[in-house]
Write a structure and sequence with these properties.
The complex is a heterodimer of chains A (131) and B (278). Chain A has 131 residues and is mostly helical. Chain A has one domain (2-44, 57-126). Helix content of chain A is 76%, strand content 0%. Chain A has four helices and no strands. Chain A has helices at 2-43, 64-72, 76-104, 108-126. The longest helix of chain A has 42 residues, at 2-43. Chain B has helices spanning 3-24, 29-39, 44-67, 74-97, 100-119, 133-137, 158-175, 180-190, 195-219, 225-246, 252-274; strands at residues 142-146, 149-153. Chain B is globular. Chain B is 74% helix and 4% strand. Chain B is mainly α and 278 residues long. Chain B has one domain (3-274). In chain B, helix 8 runs antiparallel to helix 9 (195-219). A two-stranded antiparallel ribbon of chain B has the order 1-2. Classes of the chains: A mainly alpha (131), B mainly alpha (278). At the A-B interface, helix 1, helix 3 and helix 4 of A face helix 1, helix 3, helix 4, helix 9 and helix 10 of B.
Chain lengths: 131, 278
């Protein structure tokens, strides 16, 4: 029984840290998106945009490498995309964190399940589907 | 349309989407995609890319509030994420090979279904009869705090629930939505998980699932920063305010009004897809 109570308290701590992690992730990425938005808008307010046709070949910053390259020149769109990338990585960080907490609980079955989920996500990072 | 005007319109629309999404529990994508495609003539590929970002934003934003209460069952979430993440990627691959018109029609049908699910009276099927061998093996049964004590619950039909999550994940990847309505069927009706646990756990899964498909969409060039910027800012601010209002107000009437709007949007999307106007 005492083991069970300890387990629950541990879970509580983990959940609290998880909540904070998510909040910080969302806040930081939104802030970066806003900064990128200001940089982007201040340079081309009156330019005409059209998204009526999907043109993947014209897509800017569609990979992690391109985003970092764009960051060096302080490109507004690259900054936005970096914020978006951070937002995408927030739930992924949550999975990584959960794996560690399962490891501390010595629940190896769930360490494995967490790693499987993480592997699927990492695969998606390298998946390049042709059009 | 100038960049500034486009940004302002999308920002306002995304704000409303985030607000209504959190008040009604339907998520942001339901409004973001029709707003962009029907309202602003944006290609559905870009709309899906923007929507998947809004799903992550609302999931992480509201999850931060939920996990503090300590009722998310991380084991159930993690276990079912095997199904949702794999199938989300399958969904994105399917999206690459089928015509955009079909995607729009499927989206419309899911919208109709979501509106129906939102209005349906929810019945809590949860109990504590530990009969499922798989639930025991995967340690899915759990408990949640109720004034002073702990309420135990048992998880049922693990295989059925897992299969349902595969469907939910596929549609999430295909359409760029959170598939909340389907996850509810899987967790509440099939696996008989109590509401308090299923709502927060499904929200936890949504972010992780969307992250898997979002990375593929990023590589495909479907996430355009000029659209993602106002969508992210609008949805997050709308959802944050929505979550604050939610504590104080009853949302029954709002849900009814919103369901009518969603049905209207759904029919428009289906019409657009069928007539090939996309």
């Amino acid at each position: 029984m005492s083991n069970k109570i300890k387990h629950y308290l541990g879970d509580k701590d983990v959940q609290l840290i998880l909540g904070t992690l998510l909040r910080v992730g969302v806040l930081v990425s939104t802030a970066i998106v806003i900064i990128g938005g200001i940089v982007f808008l201040s340079s081309q307010t009156n330019q005409i945009v059209s998204f009526e046709n999907f043109k993947p070949e014209q897509a800017k910053f569609s990979s992690v490498a391109e985003i970092f390259k764009g960051l060096k020149t302080m490109d507004g769109l690259a900054i936005i995309q970096f914020g978006v990338l951070l937002l995408i990585f927030t739930p992924i960080a949550r999975v990584v964190f959960s794996i560690f907490s399962f490891l501390m609980e010595k629940d190896y079955m769930y360490v494995l399940i967490g790693i499987i989920v993480l592997c699927v996500i990492i695969t998606s990072l390298y998946l390049d589907i042709a059009h | 349309m100038t960049v500034l005007l486009f940004t302002i319109i999308v920002l306002l629309g995304a704000f409303v989407a985030g607000l209504l999404g959190s008040l009604t529990g339907l998520g942001g994508g339901v409004i973001i995609i029709p707003l962009l495609t029907l309202g602003l003539g944006v290609d559905v590929h870009y709309a899906i890319g923007a929507s998947i970002i809004s799903v992550i934003a609302t999931s992480s934003g509201s999850a931060a509030a939920y996990v503090k209460e300590g009722i998310t069952n991380i084991r159930i979430g993690m276990f079912l994420e095997i199904a949702t993440t794999i199938s989300a990627i399958v969904g994105v691959i399917i999206a690459t090979y089928i015509k955009a018109d079909y995607i729009i029609v499927i989206f419309g049908l899911i919208l109709l279904f979501s509106a129906f699910m939102m209005l349906r009276k929810k019945i809590d099927h949860s109990n504590n009869e530990k009969t499922s061998v798989l639930a025991n093996y995967f340690k899915l049964n759990g408990s949640y705090p109720v004034d002073g004590g702990q309420k135990q619950y048992a998880v049922h039909h693990v295989v059925g629930g897992f299969a349902m999550m595969f469907v939910a994940g596929t549609l999430s990847g295909l359409l760029g939505i959170g598939s909340g309505a389907l996850k509810v069927i899987g967790m509440d009706n099939i696996m008989k998980i109590p509401f308090k646990v299923s709502t927060t756990t499904s929200n936890f899964m949504m972010g992780v699932t969307a992250a898997a498909s979002a990375l593929v969409y990023l590589h495909k060039g479907q996430i355009d920063p000029a659209i993602a910027m106002p969508v992210t800012i609008g949805v997050i601010s709308g959802a944050t305010i929505g979550a604050k209002i939610l504590i104080k107000t009853k949302t029954d009437k709002l849900k009814l009004v919103f369901a009518v709007v969603v049905v209207f949007l759904a029919l428009q999307m289906i019409y657009k897809g069928l007539t090939g106007a996309a």
